[in-house]
């Protein structure tokens, strides 16, 4: 869970502005959407890190797994007291759970004033106005097939970060059988390159040094925009215009990882050598039941080609264990895959049944305790593999962007997306420095600045 905090609200901030507290669950696309909401409101509201000071509380939700959904209810329970104390407080639920439940949420939590799905967040100022004019409650959750993400308008929101996310596409057309995203984010829609370039330009002008382009399946970017644009061309254009930038993207679907995209890694100086390539399972039988549309042989062939084109590339992945029908031998195939590819990091999840998905109706559910056991096994295995992978960087010099720091303790990031802890003055934040790696830990590196 993240709260957005900005630096507004200091001595010069007009006291006339109201206060908004935003809580964000879920993926980076939700973080991006939270920024968009903050920006849309910035003429009337400043952000506050304190919910008890807020005139408006927005909860941007995630429904990828059941646990994510439950977090919303416990939070809403805690916020009820604030609304009882201050009846003029507005509470809005946005994002994927909002889309999933719509106006049913009012039944679960009567103190919620508005429910906005991911396509509806752009109506937030209008919805607040309706509430001001006496409307009691509003739920906007209609998904349309011809939705377009509006261009950013109005003043840039002040940031005190060196990294930022830019959503380049929304929705997903892949319908993996376990996944709720296509049902709550709607059909895939790509933003025009000009909107993306303008947004990056504004971020670069504010001192942002590292940008991650976001989408559920970025390598199918460009669908519906015409012949002359696709994802590798978008990357090439950004690289040409912003040569000082560090550029990243997530997430890529293995089935759409094309040769021209692989060539971007050695070819584009701004593009960082890291690819998050979710594999989900090592078993062809399970991949088929998941509707992933690639085989393990194809996945391994892509990995080999990537590593040949860009030997320093860092690979990370997502794994689901305990998908319906996953037999011991399927699970062993996942273990084998992890041993073969040797990812620097993995994000492993127990299968969680989601409403409206095809897999919710599949038989041969794996008992919960076996799901837990398998999750522990992959996490333990990856601990060993990950540490060994990280040890390869010991006694080398890596280029680090210093991202944050305090009391002479700094945190930086390598081009390969490894977190590096080091000592130094916080005046170095925003600098790209050569760092000597002294020691590898499980999820980070320890280093010192090279003079
Ligand atoms: N668009 C991305 C993934 C988005 S969701 C992609 O296709 O790779 C992030 C991760 O959550 C997925 O990669 C998957 O590993 C996991 N996930 C999605 N639905 C899940 C479910 N029902 N149960 C458990 N994990 C799930
Ligand atoms: Fe979900 Fe699959 Fe789409 Fe990723 S590609 S968001 S896992 S349906
Ligand atoms: Fe969660 Fe929605 Fe992202 S379900 S992972 S917040 S797209």
What structural class is derived from the secondary structure elements? alpha/beta
**Strand fraction:** 15-25%
Radius of gyration: 22 Å
| Low-pLDDT segments, ≥5 res | 6-12
Please write the CATH class name of the largest domain: Alpha Beta
Roughly what percent helix?
25-40%
Total domain units: 3
Which term fits the overall shape?
globular
Mean pLDDT: 94
What is the CA–CA distance across the termini?
38 Å
CATH level-4 homologous superfamily of the largest domain: tm_1862 like domain
The total strand number stands at 20
CATH-level-2 architecture of the largest domain: Alpha-Beta Horseshoe
Query: What is the subunit arrangement here?
Result: single chain
User: Helix segment count?
Assistant: 13
- Small molecules (ligands, ions, cofactors) in the structure: S-adenosyl-L-homocysteine, iron/sulfur cluster, FE3-S4 cluster
What would the CATH topology of the largest domain be? Answer: pyruvate-formate lyase- activating enzyme
The major β-sheet equals: 7 strands, mixed
Which SSEs are present, and which pair or pack?
Blueprint: E1 2-3, E2 18-24, H1 28-41, E3 45-47, E4 56-61, H2 66-85, E5 90-95, H3 96-101, H4 104-108, E6 114-116, H5 124-132, E7 138-140, E8 163-167, E9 169-170, H6 181-185, E10 189-190, H7 193-205, E11 210-214, H8 231-241, E12 246-250, H9 259-267, E13 274-276, H10 284-289, H11 296-309, E14 314-321, H12 328-341, E15 345-350, H13 368-391, E16 397-406, E17 409-414, E18 419-423, E19 432-440, E20 444-449
Parallel strand pairs: 2-3, 2-4, 4-5, 5-6, 6-7, 8-11, 11-12, 13-14, 14-15, 18-20
Antiparallel strand pairs: 1-2, 9-10, 16-17, 16-19, 17-18, 19-20
Helix pairs in contact: 12-13
Bound molecules: S-adenosyl-L-homocysteine, iron/sulfur cluster and FE3-S4 cluster.
Iron/sulfur cluster binds next to α6.
């Amino acid at each position: 869970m993240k709260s957005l905090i900005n630096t507004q609200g200091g001595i010069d901030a007009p006291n006339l502005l109201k206060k908004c507290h935003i809580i964000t669950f879920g993926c980076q696309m939700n973080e991006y959407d939270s920024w968009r909401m903050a920006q849309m409101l910035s003429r009337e509201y400043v952000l506050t890190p304190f919910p008890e000071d807020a005139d408006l509380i927005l909860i941007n939700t995630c429904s990828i797994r059941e646990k994510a959904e439950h977090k919303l209810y416990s939070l809403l329970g805690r916020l009820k007291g604030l609304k009882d104390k201050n009846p003029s407080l507005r509470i809005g639920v946005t994002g994927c759970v909002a889309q999933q439940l719509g106006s049913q949420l009012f039944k679960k939590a009567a103190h919620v004033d508005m429910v906005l799905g991911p396509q509806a967040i752009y109506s937030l100022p209008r919805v607040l106005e309706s509430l001001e004019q006496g409307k009691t409650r509003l739920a906007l959750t209609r998904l349309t097939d011809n939705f377009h993400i509006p261009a950013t308008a109005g003043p840039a929101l002040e940031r005190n970060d060196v990294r930022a996310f830019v959503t380049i596409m929304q929705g997903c057309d892949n319908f993996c059988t376990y996944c709720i995203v296509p049902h709550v984010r709607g059909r895939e829609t790509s933003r025009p390159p000009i909107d993306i370039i303008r947004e990056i330009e504004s971020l670069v002008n504010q001192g942002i040094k590292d940008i991650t382009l976001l989408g559920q399946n970025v390598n199918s970017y460009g669908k519906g925009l015409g012949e002359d644009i696709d994802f590798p061309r978008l990357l090439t254009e950004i690289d040409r215009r912003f040569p000082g930038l560090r550029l990243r993207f997530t997430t890529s679907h293995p089935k759409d990882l094309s040769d021209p995209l692989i060539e971007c890694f050695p070819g584009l100086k701004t593009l960082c050598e890291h690819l998050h390539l979710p594999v989900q399972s090592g078993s062809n039988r399970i991949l088929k039941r998941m509707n992933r549309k690639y085989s393990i042989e194809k996945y391994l062939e892509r990995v080999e080609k990537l590593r040949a084109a860009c030997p320093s590339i860092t690979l990370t992945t997502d794994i689901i264990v305990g998908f319906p029908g996953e037999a011991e031998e399927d699970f062993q195939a996942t273990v084998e895959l992890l041993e073969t590819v040797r990812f620097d990091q993995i994000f492993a999840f127990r299968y969680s049944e989601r409403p409206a998905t095809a897999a919710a109706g599949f038989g041969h559910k794996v008992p919960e305790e076996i799901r837990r056991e398998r999750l522990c096994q992959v996490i333990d295995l990856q601990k060993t593999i990950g540490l060994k992978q990280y040890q390869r960087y010991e006694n080398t010099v890596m280029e680090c962007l210093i991202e944050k720091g305090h009391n002479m303790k700094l945190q930086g990031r390598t081009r390969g997306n490894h977190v590096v802890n080091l000592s130094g003055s916080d005046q170095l934040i925003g600098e790209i420095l050569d760092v000597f790696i002294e020691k590898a830990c499980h999820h980070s590196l320890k280093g010192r600045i090279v003079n």
